[in-house]
Amino acid sequence: MSPVVRPALAPGSRIVIVRHGEAVGGIENIVAGHLSCKGLTEHGRRQVEALAGRLRHTGELEGAVALYSSILPRAVESAEILAPALGGLPVQSTCDLCERHVGDADGMTWSEYEAQYGVTTDWSSDPDREFAPGGETWMGFLDRAEAALYEVMERHPGRLVVVASHGGVVATSMKRFLGLADHGAALRCHPDNSSMTEWSWTGARWWLVRYNDAAHLDTQEWAGDTRLRIPAPGWVQAETQEGQPELTGSQQEISGSKM
């Protein structure tokens, strides 16, 4: 892929990236690409509905001028749930905002994938390797997702844009906008389902307004009687058990996928 062209954005341009709700593919433990994504679970719909209720109540994204999503059903469904809370904005879908393209692994279980292609939780070992034949490399995905985020912001200079997308796209924004190492060894993101990550361009640099804001998943007013937040992924628990120090309550609050 050609190097990312970074356009000159208008100062005050803002983007909020919403990770989709819990997906059927995640529950079924499959590599859910373009062919096998089955959209949101009922729990996932409730997560995004909780965010929509919060936005209606707070008006914190008032003034959004555009709503984008990837073309994967889990992101499209999330955007459609949010649209009424954003003034009925039409959903504009583009593959450029999709999660990493998985090629021939589409529809495999993660166990089948790891048996055939090896465990690939650390892409720093070979960031130029395809996810599977016909899929994207890690570097190719980062370039494509970064270019997509710049493109949607460039279309709406100085305004607020909302994007319903994926954990990998959130991670791309963290790595590229903050200038972190692409291999990801220093930072591994796992934003909560339906969380918001917001950026603003000052004209000189990126301002990270918030990361992984999912307070609505814990607030009875929007989540109801059941907590909607999903527990930390297995790799977090495994690393903790292997000798990483346990986080205190305050540390957990400030610490930051499978698809």
Write a compact overview of the structure shown:
With 259 residues, the protein is an alpha/beta fold. Helices cover 33% and strands 14% of the residues. Helix 2 (42-58) packs parallel to helix 3 (73-82) and helix 5 (138-154) packs across helix 6.
List keywords for this structure.
alpha/beta, Rossmann fold
Report on this structure.
With 259 residues, the protein is an alpha/beta fold. The protein has a single domain, classed as 3-Layer(aba) Sandwich (Rossmann fold), CATH 3.40.50.1240. The chain has nine helices and six strands; from the N terminus they run βααβαβααβαββααα. It has a six-stranded mixed sheet with strand order 3-2-4-1-5-6. Helix 2 runs parallel beside helix 3 and helix 5 crosses helix 6. The two termini are 22 Å apart. 39% of the residues are buried. About 4% of the residues have low confidence.
CATH topology: Rossmann fold
Kindly report how far apart the N and C termini lie: 22 Å
The CATH class label is Alpha Beta
The whole-angstrom Rg is 18 Å
Describe the main β-sheet briefly.
6 strands, mixed
What is the count of β-strands? Answer: 6
**Beta-strand residue percentage:** 5-15%
CATH superfamily: Phosphoglycerate mutase-like
Our count of domains comes out at 1
- The gross shape turns out to be globular
Q: In order across it, which strands form the biggest sheet?
A: 3-2-4-1-5-6
Q: What's the helix-strand series?
A: EHHEHEHHEHEEHHH
Please name the CATH architecture: 3-Layer(aba) Sandwich
Structural class, by secondary structure, is alpha/beta
Number of helices: 9
Helix content: 25-40%
Low-confidence stretches: 247-256
Q: Mean pLDDT score, rounded?
A: 88
